[in-house]
Amino acid sequence: MKIEVMVKPGSSRQKIEETGPNRYTAWVHERPIENKANLAVIKLLAGHLKVPKSGISLFKGAKSKNKIFEIG
């Protein structure tokens, strides 16, 4: 399954919100430096979807705010 995530890095809050079918918005504290924001989003998604972090991979958008993650 693939999901779309709009990432808001450098936020004062850390949360994830479903905005549609297979679409999410994620706010993370980390800045997009050295892949830290991407890793924070994976951790947040894993907790929200109740899957292990190893089951989530970044499919597209490593350097974009709009990303596609593959679950499973």
Task: Report what the structure shows.
By secondary structure, the chain is of the alpha+beta class. The protein has one domain: YggU-like (Conserved Hypothetical Protein Mth637, Chain: A), CATH 3.30.1200. Helix content is 19%, strand content 40%. The protein contains one helix and five strands. Strands 2-3-1-5-4 form a five-stranded mixed beta sheet, with helices on one face. Strand 2 (15-20) and strand 3 form a beta hairpin. The protein starts with a strand and ends with a strand. The mean pLDDT is 96.
What is the CATH topology?
Conserved Hypothetical Protein Mth637, Chain: A
Task: Provide mean pLDDT, rounded.
Answer: 96
Question: From N to C, what is the helix and strand string?
Answer: EEEHEE
Distance separating the two termini? 7 Å
CATH architecture: 2-Layer Sandwich
Number of strands: 5
The shape is globular
How much strand content do the residues show?
35-45%
Strand order of the largest sheet: 2-3-1-5-4
**Biggest beta sheet summary:** 5 strands, mixed
Number of domains: 1
Highest-level CATH class: Alpha Beta
Low-confidence stretches: none
Which superfamily, in CATH terms, is the homologous superfamily?
A: YggU-like
Q: From the helix content, strand content and strand pairing, which structural class follows?
A: alpha+beta
